[in-house]
Write a structure and sequence with these properties.
The complex is a heterodimer of chains A (about 130) and B (about 120).
Chain A (H helix, E strand, L loop, with lengths): L1 H37 L6 H40 L4 H25 L14 E2 L1
Chain B lengths: L2 E5 L3 H11 L5 E5 L2 H9 L6 E4 L8 H9 L9 E5 L4 H9 L4 E4 L4 H12 L4
Parallel strand pairs in B: 1-2, 1-3, 3-4, 4-5
The chains are: A mainly alpha (about 130), B alpha/beta (about 120).
């Protein structure tokens, strides 16, 4: 299944790019934070909110990295089955499709969960007390 | 001064909360791992307020909260969840575990200060 090998390589590439972005974004905010602390700068609410966006960006990218890992694992299981018994391929491809669909659904759910207020159109700033 | 502990696996989140609380009359300790904070609590640390993230590796916010409620010194310590999660069922789960309140990220700095002031009954 050469097409799956290509797909796997593409997913691996996307994952590597995302990991680099997470690391660069982290390094960037650490340097900015270091500069602020070193110079005793007072930051306003907008800067503090912007700093928090980095956290959300990292969570979102890490969630999609998890989805990629899950997809690659499902593809690997299918490829292994296909190599060993072509008769099982039809059954396996159904399982692969189910696994990929479930992975997509979980990743979409995490996109909503990890966006915080930034994804809510009518978000107010009230803190909910119980 | 009252001791407030922040637990979040994100260094950025901790840096943000540190900046917000630096002018407040409180002592702040920060942890990137809930299990480390829990170990210090079990060893005798007695925070007056605990503010924790929910989604963390190893020990998540709910597991941390459950464990805190089993330690006599933190059985009734106020706890606030600071998270990106907005689902009502998660808030209900937190409430059932004795959570004091729920703050959604990115937090409003003034609102976070007000929440800490209110829970600790600091002079406004």
């Amino acid at each position: 299944m050469l097409i799956l090998n290509s797909l796997d390589s593409l997913l691996e590439h996307i994952k590597n790019v995302q990991e680099d972005v997470v690391n660069l974004s982290h390094d960037s905010i650490v340097k900015i934070n270091g500069f602020i602390e070193k110079n005793n700068l007072e930051v306003d609410d907008d800067v503090l909110t912007a700093m928090q966006y980095q956290d959300i960006v990292s969570q979102q990218l890490n969630a999609t990295i998890e989805a990629i890992d899950s997809m690659r694992s499902a593809i690997e299981v299918f490829s292994h089955t296909y190599k060993n018994d072509e008769n099982l391929a039809t059954e396996s491809i159904t399982k692969l499709q189910e696994k990929l669909d479930a992975t997509l659904k979980e990743a979409q759910d995490k996109k909503d969960r990890f966006s915080g207020k930034s994804a809510l159109e009518d978000a107010d700033d009230a803190i909910e007390f119980f | 001064m009252p001791l407030v502990i922040f637990v979040d696996d994100s260094e950025t989140a901790l840096a943000s909360t540190k900046m917000v609380t630096s002018s407040m009359p409180i002592e702040v300790k920060q942890y990137t791992e809930a299990q480390v904070a829990l170990a210090e609590i079990k060893a005798g640390m007695t925070p007056d307020l605990i503010i924790t993230d929910l989604n963390m590796p190893v020990m998540n916010g709910f597991e941390f909260l459950k464990a805190l409620r089993e330690v006599p010194s933190t059985k009734r310590t106020p706890c606030l969840m600071l998270t990106t999660e907005t689902k009502a069922e998660l808030k209900q789960q937190g409430k059932a575990l004795g959570l004091t309140g729920w703050i959604v990220k990115p937090f409003n700095p003034a609102q976070l200060k007000q929440a800490i002031t209110r829970v600790l009954r600091l002079p406004a």
